[in-house]
User: Fold these one by one.
Assistant:
Number 1:
Amino acid sequence: MRPVALTVAGSDSGGGAGAQADLKTFEACGAFGTSALTAVTAQNTTGVTHSTVLDPAAVRAQHDAVVADFDVAAAKTGMLGDADVAAEVADALGESDFPVVVDPVVVAQSGDRLLTERGVDAVRDRLLPEATVATPNVPEAELLADVEIEAEADLREAAEAVRDLGPDAVLLTGGHLDGDPVDVYAGETTRAFTRERVDTDDTHGSGCTLSAAIAAHLASGDDLEVAVERGVDATARAIASPLSLGSGAGPVDHAAIADGRRAIADGERAGVSRSYGTTDAIEAVRDVVAALEREWPPELVPEVGTTVAVAPADATVPDDVVAVDGRLHATSRGVRATGGVAPGASSHIARFLLGVREHDLRSSAAGNVRWSRARESALRERWDVELTDRTDEPADADGTMDWAAREAMTDRERAPDAVVDRGAIGKEAMIRVVAKDADALLEKFSEVASLERDADVV
């Protein structure tokens, strides 16, 4: 059953922002959209020519009608217009048990005011404390938290200042600053999203789209940080589209979000690796580590330790690849990770995985297993296994893992299930397992473990 999301926002007659953008985004992200309109505006890509804020009772009646009949799984707010509507919306959403994304809309992209001064106070004092996550831009954060944001270095402190007003988390978007856009997330963890600035003025509705995409993913059951990352990715796709409409700042392309989701789904059905974002990759590695700590046989851990790596879709260097810091080791209490999970935590397995991905982007995960001759033999009977000989490694190779990946992928379009390295003087022999995603990697690790139980492979 499709999840239901609710937008409480104003109407944009131009279709690029407001409730219209929210409903398009919900649909593109796989949620069924419902709405409670707060205002009616006459606007297009050049500006707002008229605005009428609805009676708070009418807004509340729409909200109540929706939640009485639909199993709303997440909501978002946009333009509220004035203090009375903001207070009514805060009361309504405060009585709900679903997550709420607050987009504290103050002005339109054209610069036209969409919220009164008293309305700003109501959003600050009444609505933000009800928010699961707030998504202000730079001017909105400055107004709400009475801070100055002049450069990227100010974003983190400003995001925390907005969070002090009551929301569980804040995503402060930095697109108003010069340079490549940086969005800062402050919640249980703090992180930044950076991307290249697209050379376009057609960003009308990008803030609405971001908050709606986050709400849609929350409605689908994603954890907050995952929903935020997917919302950021969806909005980036919408902005990057070449769609250009109107004579002013045109709308972003919501169809591009749906196209991106379909491409990922088609790829997964065709056996292509899951398209990980960094937050997804972190969660995936954590899940694998938890499973290995529960059930991984210590005799499968190499002397140097076992690590697990997952590459986000845009990973290009080892610092992008998520892995286990310090690896997993055999201890008296079983297999245990000595550190946390983070991007850049591994150099060796990350370089190996990136080297494989230069030839086969369907491979997103890798890990290493202790080598034995019997284990190699058993796997070669079951899997597609490549063998690399470290004694052939040239002295001027740019790195053992880079070289091993190139050797393994010579004359191949698809990655093998595993690459066997029998070692050399001072270099431990190893089996490196490659998989399309973290789930598939764990399945392969489980198959290796079953060999130990069923055939006494040592």
Note: The first helix runs from residue 18 to 28.
Number 2:
Amino acid sequence: MSVMRLGYLHIRVTNLADAKRFYVDTLGMQVVLEQGNKIYLKCWDEWDHHSLMIEEGGVGVIKLGYKVAKPEDLAYFEKRIEAFGVSTTRMSVGETLGVGEGLRFIIPSGHTLELYHHMEFTDTAVGLINPPLFPRNLAGVGVPRLDHCLLKTDNIPLAERFFIEALDFKPAERLVSDLSSDGELLGTWLFCQHKTHDIAFVAGEKGRIHHWGYKLEGWDAIRHAGSILSMDDVSVGYGPEIHGLSRGETIYFFDPAGNRMEVFAGGYETYPDFPTITWTADQLPRAVGYISRELKENHFTVDT
């Protein structure tokens, strides 16, 4: 019984045409379907129907979808979630486009989350038989896959406890005010399989998102991404840098509506008995930007 990965993210944007140009031409995502005021997109190395849906009408996150390993996992997690005190509703086939039956619920941070097992398979840009290393016609950054997200909450311990007790996630890293027994939990980075983190929480207004991340292959890809972002006059909030926390190579930037995202490379692999790494608040500059040890105000004050 397991949650496997972040499968999709549905967000709002202020202008659909501007957003489409950004996600297709700058990030290099592929349009799967345009439907009214919505566009469904995927990255070139993703198998499922879509990983991002953009909808005109504001900013911020609408909902997130996490894929489970087996159909019977839905009933297993339904019991765990309800036992925690969170109500669930059953999703019917197609209620979320391309997605099979699932569970929908509001997590303690105020975000809507869906669990599902089946999603329509639409192949990758390189296929499954003798595939090339990458498509020849990649545009812009050419992001391969959706990786993780960082959400805001007014109760980090409760959000962390829910993902541990109800969904079997584990904390890879935590940020605390100090190492005393009553030290405050300031952030938690949780994994469900082998990533440094599949979801994370920091302090802020419930229901808000700090960023979501796309996984690139290495520092050269991060450097290339930075060049593309500059060519396209994209607003960059932080980086290029290396996080002490997660050891990830990173750039944070904003879409035309102001939603923040990240390109992320490196990091380390986790496993079931991975011990939690702890960072203290006095080392926050190294945790965020290990090389420069500089903190940008927008990194802590801007969310959608």
Note: The mean pLDDT is 97.
Number 3:
Amino acid sequence: MTLLARFSLVAVVACLAQVATAAEEIGDAERGEALFRQCQSCHQIGPDATNRVGPHLNGVFGRTAGSVEGFRYSKAFERAGSKGLEWHIDTLGSFLENPKAIVPGTRMSYRGMADAQDRADLIAYMRDFSASPANIPESDPTARAVSHDLDPAILEIQGDPAYGEYLASECQTCHRVDGQDSGIPSIIAWPEDDFVIAMHAYKTKAREHPVMNMMAGRLSNEEIAALAAYFATLE
């Protein structure tokens, strides 16, 4: 493999890491705005938001817990952040359902939101105040994966992790294998099917992105499967 081809793989996987596949919206943001009134006694969100009893919630997607500058967090939140808790669709959903189960010892008095649809709608509203992945492929996904039309035979290809490791060796000069993503997206532990589906969406131009369309188009089905198998093995 040429140096250019190997460098291209870095670009492919870097852009892939944080982009959602064919997807449905999280929830109803308009309804979520009404639900946010439950939070307004402690939190603000929007152009003029500031820290109050709780930190402001602008840019919460992809943010490490306990990291808003100028806000004094509880020890519980400081510990959670130091252990790697980040706010994404899944972690926000779990936290809103039961805050004390996700951050034991938090001073937050909110008991939680029991209804799953309410949580989805609230998260959809909050998502409007973080970077939009419609135009920024590296931003945190704003949607959940749904069905796809990829040939099942492609998903059945058994990737060779060892070959995937060879193909991805240049990626690891930038992407840390311990899962940290300080400025560079983490690419480890992706489910293999999700990885393959996303790559083929670029390969077939079902998802438009000039660089990704070009780079993914150079990879064979077997190479994509190998990369998926390798990154799925990393913890």
Note: Confidence is low (pLDDT under 50) at residues 1-23.
Number 4:
Amino acid sequence: MDNRLSAPGTSPVAGPPPPRRRLRWPRRVLVVALAGGVAAGAVLTLSPRDRRHGMAPAPAAGPRAQAPASVTFGVPAALPQLTALIGQQEQRVRAQPRDARAWAVLGSAYVERGREAADPASFPKAEQALRTSLRVRGAHNTEALDGLAALALARRDFPAAKQYAEQALKASPGRWASYPPVIDAYNGLGDYDAAHKALDKLLGLRTGAAARPAVMARAAAVYRDRGWREDAVAQLTDAAAAARTPAEQAAYLTGLGQLAWERGDLKEALRHFEAALRLEPGRRGALTGRGRTLAALGRTTEALTAYRTALARQPDPQDILELGELYESLGQDRSATAQYAQLRTRVRQAVAAGVDEELLIGRFEADHGNPFEAVERLEEEYRRQPGIEGADALGWALHRAGDDKEALTYASVATDKTKGGGVRSAPYAFHRGIIEGELELYGPARRHLQEALRINPYFSPLRAPEAREALAALGDVPEEPLPAEAP
């Protein structure tokens, strides 16, 4: 299914735009082959029988097996094991530069380290290693193709991810590790029906015990995007129970914490995030998730500490923006400004490494900078990869730029199940409600603002209070006289 609109917004806003800042964002660098989704690259040798049934040999238990499994099965691994694996593979390719499999393992390990550590500097190294593997073995090198698809996902280049993932799938349709990248690519391009069909094929494969938790986690992600929250929770719960290593279990518990956060269940979210951190103290998603939840609980000092700990280890741009908005909600404008300056620095580094950060830049500019620049960037981004995230961001940017009529078109895409917007998202519902209120569509505005606060009353330290204020301003549903009876 294609979410492209027949007439993309043009933002005909009256009045001059606000002055441009001296410090400009970098424009997206288009790189043909790009890094890191759930399954980076299947690099262990399978027997003919295993290849026929889409199965792979189970990884040995223990720390040494964690990192190879992460690039073989899509099983999360701890950063120290990934670093050790990279060191081993670097030694191997120096000794045997014609070993295509070793190059593929090395490239996929770089992808995973870059993704897990929020370190985009790993991505060019990953691309070089994976392309070397392709040159050595040829175009039917499924391990390298999987790695390149994962690299494209990490850089948010969904067209490239789709190209590489489909090539890998065509070469080996019974190999389960090729399915997660293609599912993610379809989702990023707004083709949700294709993503669901690919998931059905993945679930129909016979996967070994080692791979099964990662398959469950992939199913949970698709179910979440379709709005099937209970099914997503069930799949991730089973994945966490079946996980074979602490890092793997911590990753799935982090996912359960995020699902609980999205439905506003703070106690459950905090329980999962803290359980994940007991297993893997440095897991970034659990640290920031814990910070987000503590802030909603009013435990502000602990929340700030959790965020700072996460960012000291792995300064991810999205997490930096989140902390900046928390500071802003607390009236600490100087600290917020410092975070936004750090965000610009990290985005420049990510773009230099081939990452497409247009969505994040657009969101930032819409709320904290120049909404006209946000519209310009997000219109181009949405034309290239029209997922519901892009539709929501573009709709909100158009609203902030004053074009609410056009904004509603995109906000409707993001929240319309028939167009793929099945995910139950408080921010999406909030954005649509605010836009409808500006258009004097008071009934729909009231419904969507209520929906946002019903889904998660704490969805943003800045925007949740705004949603409550807007809902209060709309007042109660007006009493209207009953229609006259027909004569």
Note: The chain has 24 helices and no strands.
